Amino acid sequence: MAKEFIPYTLEQRLLLPPDLRDWLPEGHLALFIADVVQELDLSAIFKKYKRTDGRGRPAYHPAMMTGLLLYAYCVGKTSSRKIEKATYEEVAFRVLAGDQHPDHDVIADFRKRNLKELSGLFNEVLQLCRQAGLVKLGHVALDGTKVKANASKHKAMSYKRMCEAERKLKEEVERLLEEAERVDAEEDAKYGKGCRGDELPEELRRRESRLKKIREAKKALEKEARKKAEKKAGEARERIKERERKEREQGRKFGGRLPQVPNPDEAKPRDNAQKNFTDPDSRIMVDKSTNSFAQAYNAQAAVDSEAQVIVAADVTQDASDKHQLVTMAEQVQQNTGHLPDHLSADSGYFSADELTDPSLVGVNLLVPPEKNVQTAEGTAMRAKLDLPENRAIYRRRKAIAEPPFGQIKAARGFRQFSLRGHENVRGEFLLVALTHNLLKLFRSGWCPTGLEPCPA
């Protein structure tokens, strides 16, 4: 006897309007995101939609667009085209979109126009994590990782090569202009003044365009060199003032040379200083995970030991971590209202100036110096880390700070920024950190206010 089957037909008509939430199992991440979005303050985004003339088609609801983007970043789908496709093909995206299908241009534009407001939600989600007991600020570990820019390293050029290319292209443009004038003169003589032929040759347009880009990049590098020289000059003047003050106090002149004050007007970029034409803010950096050079940014995260929640996140153009300790600690305090009891970081963050900064007084700083550091500060830190209680705290650093980057890069596939420009990639990384914290909140079993307890 043939086995009976449940009736199946793709032409089945629904007699009642379906509740889209029923398409997903109870406790699904997408439903959690939809509920959390209702808790977030989206007023800054809503203000941008105020219209008084009554013209134009209605916009997609900001809550729907925000939920769609947050869920997409949670599951590692950051491409606007992939998000649009998912609203047709993947149930969770279809539910979050309310069975609507915003075009990829609309999704990309929403992210771009509201990036500041979206990244600003980082603090709101962090406060939800604190309410859920996921942040204690007992031990915060700091780490950095290189994230590829949305640009190829082959589109970068050194200052020395820029100068050579500028000279060569200038000569070629002048030669092509002379050739164009000669051809114009011959055609005028042959056909008369009335004939066209004044358009620039394609070859000339390409070279002029490249020459313009090179000159802009050169100017940017020269501006950066001047700014660095101005900063160094200011620091040198301060050291001279401090020296003169001490000489007055002690009533004698010190030996040795005075600090040299560089002239910003004479500052020149190093020959190997580079600028990328696709994303000028990005830099060539060494990616330690692959031991190779990449066009990248340096992403920073301060991670709380309680549940590996990111309590501060930033992106710097500096390949070195040496000057990030104070900046990240200040962000932790700004985001949470408190400094941690213990702050640990690897040897790449060791800097005497950073470790003795007045803003970090009261924090137990555990940052080992590199082997070649033989200063008094380095010796003192080594002695501090030899204490059993500090050694036990520092031993946990790697297990606190590194897993979030592993989850972000390996599990969620975020290895390259979608956006370009320092401010934009900083906003995007805050969005990534925000969704990392949302996933921590989701897995903790926490539920938004007024809802039934979430299933374990």
Summarize the structure.
The chain has helices at 29-39, 43-47, 62-74, 80-89, 91-96, 104-113, 115-131, 159-191, 202-250, 325-336, 352-355, 376-386, 388-394, 397-411, 422-443; strands spanning 139-148, 156-158, 274-276, 283-287, 292-304, 310-316, 342-344, 364-366. With 456 residues, it is an alpha/beta fold.
Query: Which architecture of the largest domain would the CATH scheme give at its second level?
Result: 2-Layer Sandwich
What is the N-to-C succession of helices and strands?
HHHHHHHEEHHEEEEHEHEHHHH
Backbone structural class: alpha/beta
Largest sheet: 6 strands, mixed
Shape label:
globular
Distance between the termini: 43 Å
Number of DSSP E strands: 8
- The total number of structural domains is 3
User: How much is the radius of gyration in Å?
Assistant: 29 Å
Annotation field: number of helices = 15
CATH class of the largest domain: Alpha Beta
Mean pLDDT: 84
Which regions are unreliable across 5 or more consecutive residues at pLDDT < 50? none
Approximate strand percentage: 5-15%
Oligomeric status of the shown chains?
single chain
Range of helix content: 40-55%
CATH topology of the largest domain: Nucleotidyltransferase, domain 5
